[in-house]
Amino acid sequence: MADRTSRVSVKRKEKKAENKTNDEKEKEKTKCGKKQEKVAKKPEMTSEPCAMDEDKRNGEATGAAAAQVKKNDGNGEFEPIELPPFEIVTGEQMSPFYFKFQFRNVEYSSGRNKTLLCYRVDTPGGSTEPLKGYLEDEHATAHAEEAFFQQVLPDSNPSQEYDVTWYVTSSPCVACAAKVANILRQRKKLRLCVFCSRLFESEEPAIVEGLKALANAGCKLRMMKPSDFEHVWETYVEKEDQSFTPWEDCKENYDYYMEKLADILK
């Protein structure tokens, strides 16, 4: 009798324990479901402020419309949306690190996705102080070459003569070469000499034709040699007490690019 009573008691305890276990499982499922729901909702909550921050940053600038990708929750597809443009940055001097990275005349310019343009504008006779500074672009509507003629030297005085010198991180793209060539044909009293650190996509036929058209319009195209890099360092870099030391393959890369440019323009 005692054994039967104890067995019944044990079964009740087991049943109670089983019920308790099932209850705990249900609670865990409910918890997991809520947790998953929170995780699923988190991107929706955080993406909006991020987009607002991005809009705020871009809204303060001028330059080119960048594309942002937005997910359509209905069909899971991604569609581009237009953001306010980035600005063309202008200044008088750049940091030493910036110069050494952006102007290095490597053959493969990985990570160098912008153009830096250092300029000097002289008027014949030296009646005024030369105008000097630099421009840079990144995802901008107007590339640095075009921005120069919009912001630095607009056609406000057609009768004035100008001698313009550029030191650029890479040669112009097809569109910029065409625009600059057109400006030179229109502004007969403007003389332009462009020193390039690297050649941009010089194997492309359209680029080759663009550089030829630029030269035919009167632009003098040159590659930057070690002394040109030193000149940019001394004139456009916030170097403090640092001196310029050419990188190991500076002269070798200059020779390589000079031969390529000569082949293009011959």
TrEMBL record:
Q: Where is the CMP/dCMP-type deaminase domain?
A: 94-221
A GO BP term here is: cytidine to uridine editing
Keyword Thylakoid applies: no
What UniProt keywords apply to this chain's record, in alphabetical order?
Answer: Hydrolase, Metal-binding
Q: Name one GO molecular function term.
A: cytidine deaminase activity
Q: Which PROSITE patterns does this UniProt record tie to the protein?
A: CYT_DCMP_DEAMINASES_2
Looking at the record's lineage, which domain of life comes first? Eukaryota
The UniProt annotation puts the region (Disordered) at 1-78
Q: Where is the composition biased (Basic and acidic residues)?
A: 15-45
Reply yes or no: does the keyword Metal-binding apply.
yes
One Pfam annotation, family name? APOBEC2
Any single GO CC term annotated in Swiss-Prot or TrEMBL for this entry:
cytoplasm
Cofactor(s) needed, names only, are: Zn(2+)
Name the family the entry cites.
Answer: Belongs to the cytidine and deoxycytidylate deaminase family.
Q: What is this protein called?
A: Apolipoprotein B mRNA editing enzyme, catalytic polypeptide-like 2b
Q: Which organism is it from?
A: Hippocampus comes
